Amino acid sequence: MRFRPLLALVLALCLTLVSACSGGAKAVDRANLTYEDIHNTGLANDCPTLPDSARGTISLDPSARYQLKEICMHPSEVFVKGEPANKRQEAQFVAGKILTRYTSSLDQVYGDLTVSGDKLTFKELGGMDFQPITVLMPGGEEVPFMFSSKELQASADGTSFSTSTDLKGEYRAPSYRTSNFLDPKGRGLTTGYSSAVGLVPAGDDEDLIKENVKRYVQGTGTMDLSITKVDASTGEFAGVFTAVQPSDTDMGGKQAVDVKITGELYGRLEQV
Q1: Helix boundaries (H) for the chain
Q2: Any bridge partners for residue 266, and if so which?
Q3: Contact (CB, 8 A) for 231 and 50
Q4: Which of 51, 253, 256, 272 is least enclosed, having the fewest CB within 10 Å?
């Protein structure tokens, strides 16, 4: 019995040493994992990371072509702008709980990076660049939205890629629903009824037209990619991102609200 405190101290010391030594390793080394290792674990939703010592700078040649590849954005927090308590107050972002567990990250996103004068410009070209996400608000309301980086065009000051690079720009936020989606009353954009069954004579009523006439509504979001770590030898970079975009409108049936998404960022810079 008297050896238990000593044993606990030794185990704690060992864990501390292991954590310190593994600090520079990537959070997820998916290249060495099998399907069984990843299945139902949530590891596929995580982004790789870099050690805190990665504080390098990558010089860019204006005459060369570059791409940002393998970009991964893992949302860690989502805030929804709610209605103010009274007209004198401004609407505030309220933290929500992400209900979408294992498929919330954007991954393998890529695009061109160009240098012109003293400005960097990134143009997104493709990848797994959209994910449907639902968050639960403190009052019990569920807010769905389509997290996206589609057609992102972001720019930053400078002629090199470093820990002070901050790419900001706009992107397209697609509709959460597609044209073939049917609501509980069988109404859709390209399929289903033109109005709810039993309400056909009143189908053109002004109060019902938003629900009866479905529309593909997409919006515009703004994104900030803040680079905090750069490994000049491998071209890898990591950091954080912040995006603000509209939520789902239920195909035009309700008003969109602003959603702010923050999380981890990872990618790789490559000359092509």
Answers
A1: 4-21, 35-38, 209-212
A2: 72, 238
A3: yes
A4: 272
CA 269 distance to own-chain centroid: 19
Contact predicate 252/210, CB 8 Å: yes
CA–CA distance, 134 with 144 (Å, rounded to integer): 4
- CA–CA distances in Å: residue 172 to residues 65, 113, 267: 25, 19, 20
* Domains, the chain, ordered by start: 54-177+216-271 (2.40.160.30)
CA distance 18 to 21: 5
> Would you list the DSSP string of 229-261?
EEETTTTEEEEEEEEEEE---TTTTS---EEEE
Would you state the structure tokens that stand for residue 91, as one six-digit string?
């609407």
What does the DSSP 8-state code read for residue 103? S
User: Which string of b and e fits 89-127 if b means at least 16 CB within 10 Å?
Assistant: eeeeeeebebebeeebbbbebbbebebeeeebbbbbeeb
pLDDT value at 109 more than 80: yes
pTM, two decimals, is 0.82
Residues 90 and 83: beta-carbon distance below 8 Å: no
Q: Among residues 129, 78, 108, which one has the least CA distance to residue 258?
A: 78
Query: In this predicted model, what pLDDT tens digit does every residue of 43-57 receive, in sequence order?
Result: 889 999 999 999 999
Structure tokens at 100: 């979408």
